[in-house]
Amino acid sequence: MPFLICIATLFGLAALGAPIAYAMIVAATVYLFMSGLDLGLASEQMLQGLFTSFILLAVPLFIVAANIMNAGTISDRLLNFCVALVGRFRGGLGHVNVVASLIFSGMSGSAIADAAGIGKIIIEMMTRNGRYSPGFAAAVTAASATIGPIIPPSIPMVMYSLVSDTSIGYLFLGGIIPGLLMGAVLMTMITVLAHRRNMVVDEPIPLRRLPGLTFRAFPALLMPVILLFGIYGGVTTPTEAAAVAAFYALVLAALFYRALSFASLYAILLDSARSSAAVGLVIGGALIFNFIVASENIPGAVAGALKGIELSPIAFLLMINVLFLLLGCVLDATTILLIVVPLFIPACRELGIDLVHFGVVIVVNTMIGLITPPYGVLLFVINATTGIPLRDIIREILPFLSVLIVALLIMTLLPETVLYLPRQFGYR
After folding, report:
1. Are 286 and 45 in contact (CB under 8 A)?
2. Which residues contact 94 (CB under 8 A, 6 or more apart)?
3. Where is average pLDDT lowest: 2-11, 24-33, 98-107?
4. Per the omega criterion (within 30 degrees of 0), is the bond before 153 cis?
5. Where does 70-166 have alpha helices with state H?
6. Phi and psi at residue 90, in whole multiples of 5°?
7. Is the C-alpha dihedral spanning 153, 157, 158, 164 positive or negative?
8. pTM for this structure?
């Protein structure tokens, strides 16, 4: 009964619009009170979990790196490089949108950061002079932003690693091919729609300018290379790599590109601190909630129930996909990763499902949830930052949503799409 009341409190507060971190903390406190346990356990679990987890330091460091990289002329240089690369095709700025997300995903690790930062700039480029409809521009931006947390670095993968005790390095490697697959299916759909609707062909940038644009963008393009080399070369841990990424971004923006003043750096650090604090509160609430779930032995009960059904690993993964796609319509990705995913980790172990494969599939699933109507968070973010009507975005997002689900199905049925690169680097 205390656990049921706890769940009812959580969803009740969330439905009333309370921040999910506060809803989790209040629901956990209600459980402790109803169970006759010491209410101080709430703060103990939160502080112990936050202060003893070296992995979690990567989250604020990636946020700082992303905010610095989005400052000044860095975004412009990378965008010019993308326009020169793929802007010459029909529907070219749609392709630029996807390629920019692939590149920026190596810097931010956050879908919302990609959509609110570089996404807003590309939407303005696409809708200028009526070349593309606002709904289409917004839909492409929302769909491509889902790639951000799949290609490393990835804040959701750090959170999954926290609850599953899986290697962040192998999770990062496992996300590269799925991220490229998502980019490929989105660009295929843009090509189909561009020819069907006879979209404009932008004036191509001469190929002779490509080397110069590449040179200007090259230092920024090195960020993901440095990150991955540090981790897989054995030079740094993932958390140390996040610190290196933040320092590299600072040196690049302040000294190399000279696009960062002390005032703008202060604003960036302030904004990063706010974002990190918000993420920290959610993680803290999840740590208390995970203590409650473990106390009630919910994961063991779920694993036992699924074992009794005798599901095959593929059937289990397909069932989980359906469940998480539905949950993604009403819950944010962080809540799913920190509260719901731990319930199914024991079942994965029982069924022999690889936890790196499972983790990448789940993160892709939660990203698709960000653009799934009616409560896709990315849809609301773009609506808030651009003023494009939500109904226009939802109407245009459906084709991209369908191809991303096809990509998710490929990753689910073919584990090698996730595990190939980790195995090349020694994962067994």
Report:
1. no
2. 126, 132, 136, 140, 187, 190, 193, 194, 199
3. 98-107
4. yes
5. 74-86, 92-104, 111-116, 118-127, 134-145, 155-164
6. -60, 135
7. negative
8. 0.78
